[in-house]
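[agent] plan:
  1. take the single chain provided in the ticket
  2. run structure prediction with default settings
  3. attach structure tokens to the ticket
  4. add a short note for the reviewer (M.T.)
[agent] executing step 1
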Amino acid sequence: MTLNLSTLASIYKALSDKTRLKILYLLSKRPLCVCEIMGALDITQTKTSRHLIYLKNAGLLHASREDRWTLYRIQDNLPEGIKHLLDKTVTLLKESGELNHVEQRLATILENESLYRQTFGIGKEKSHPPLSHEKRL
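[agent] step 2 finished; step 3 output follows
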């Protein structure tokens, strides 16, 4: 990613939306698929995908295909200044306490992953690939 005025404007624009901030907060914990994010935020698949694409186009996210799942994670090779900005943003969100319920919802989803996926008709024939990733920020 080349840092220039246009790139910075794109990043700040991506960070100017509450839903996208929530998504970045969740992805700071671990890589997630669309269904996990939509469940944690209680938003539609369409809205979730739209925000993920926005963040990906701004260069903040990486999407990787694992079996039939697309996992989103915070980009590894971000410039140091952008890493610091995201790190500080996540810290401020955590300190605010406003996303505790979102974090709790995600924990419940991850604990009951197979039940959640069956409820939404997701991945009945295959289980989600195991994730052993650590915090990316």
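[agent] step 4 note for reviewer: Residues 80-96 form the longest helix (17 residues).
[agent] ticket updated
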